[in-house]
Amino acid sequence: MAYDEGTAARVRKLLARQRHVAEKMMGGLCFMVDNVMCCTISGRGGMLFRVGPEAHARMLKEPHTSPMEMRGRIMTGFVRVSDEGTRTDAGLKIWVKRALDFVATMPAKPPAKRAAPRSATSASAKAKSPPRGQARTGSRR
After folding, report:
1. Which DSSP string do the residues of 96-140 spell out, in sequence order?
2. Is the per-residue pLDDT at 140 higher than 80?
3. How far apart are CA 66 and CA 12, in angstroms?
């Protein structure tokens, strides 16, 4: 999904001193801090910030904000900020700080376990099948 690379560079600069920052693609470019979603540069424009359920209603009174909606459901604790709200470095810094402040109150999550790569066919199936293009020999049951 496309996102604004210029905004991504600005967010990276603001998060440069943070420990355990990772980037993931989730509807745009998501910045994770201690394996917790902090903010996302949306592929549909604007940014999503995690502000927490207690601050949610208060943050929606800020200029250029709207609720974050996912599959028709309002995601309490997250706000969408239009491009106008993060256009200046000062505006972006305020929102990133708000998200970082909330994420700092949450316990760090352990890294997600990666599943072992699955092959299309198992080793036992490969041993039973002749190579492609060669006929089977022997009797079939």
Report:
1. HHHHHHHHTTSPPPPPPPPPPPPPSS-HHHHHHSPPTT----S--
2. no
3. 24
